[in-house]
Amino acid sequence: MNATLSGLLRSLEAIPDDVQRCVDKALNGFVVASGRITDWDAYCGLLAAFYARLESAVLGINPPRKPNMEFDFSRCVRLMERTMYGESAMQAGFEVARTGTEGGVRQLLGRLAAAYGQTSASDQARALVSLYWEKRTHPQLFSDMDEYIAAYGHMLPSEALEGNAPRIRGKFWEALAAHPVVMRSPLRAVR
Fold first, then answer.
1. Has residue 191 been placed in a domain?
2. Residue 144 CA to chain centroid, in angstroms?
3. How far apart are CA 116 and CA 73, in angstroms?
4. Which domain holds residue 102?
5. Would you say 57 and 25 are in contact if contact means Cβ atoms under 8 Å apart?
6. DSSP code of 85?
7. Is residue 85 located within the same domain as residue 51?
8. Interval 148-159 mean pLDDT
9. In whole angstroms, how far apart are CA 1 and each of 9, 150, 152?
10. In this structure, is residue 24 part of a structural domain?
11. First-last CA distance in the chain
12. What's the alpha-carbon Rg for the chain, to the nearest Å?
């Protein structure tokens, strides 16, 4: 496999662990006074502060930036809507924090951290693939496709490899962006 492609794949494979370390550090270092929060403003402030802490940790901002209540809270709620509670995210999260059900505040923050980590890792992988893609010529990309399929085809779904693997070739950018997920798949050891 050519050095450029193998370097990209190594970098992509490192992203989930790197992001997880940052997310774990932010979560473990975030002090919460109680497992329950019954005040709406305190709940909003907690989520904004935690989101700012997560983002600072993943982006390497040290010391962590100060939270912007409106900006960070709204971004946190959007993340909760996309990954946890749907359209009722704001109220559902508050009910967990207020009642202490489903693990209370700490569990809510843990779920937020996991969702943020997955989103951030995916965004970083996509950005890295975009940078790589811009620097490659069409003949280089076609060669990279052949090398990738030869090296990792056994880990990919068999229907994606039917014929001359047109599904992989036609969506090679997406296949590269999903490479970290493929490498962590429990099925990869079976194939």
1. no
2. 25
3. 14
4. 16-122
5. yes
6. I
7. yes
8. 85
9. 11, 9, 11
10. yes
11. 21
12. 20
Let me know whether 118 and 148 are in one domain. Answer: no
One domain for residues 150 and 92: no
Q: Are residues 64 and 145 in the same domain?
A: no
Beta carbons of 30 and 53 less than 8 angstroms apart: yes
Q: What is the pLDDT of residues 133-149, one digit of tens each?
A: 999 999 999 999 999 99
DSSP annotation of 63 reads S
- Are the C-beta atoms of residues 77 and 38 closer than 8 Å to each other? no
And the tokens for 109? 């923050």
Query: Do both 22 and 109 map to the same domain?
Result: yes
pLDDT, tens digit (0-9, with 9 covering 90-100), for 71-80:
999 999 999 9
Q: Both tokens of residue 177? A: 């962006």
The string of pLDDT tens digits covering residues 35-57 is: 889 999 999 999 999 999 999 99
Whose structure tokens read 């590269």? Answer: 176
Using CA atoms of 11, 179, 109, 69 in order, give the dihedral in degrees to the nearest 10.
70
Distance of alpha carbon 109 from alpha carbon 36, whole angstroms: 12
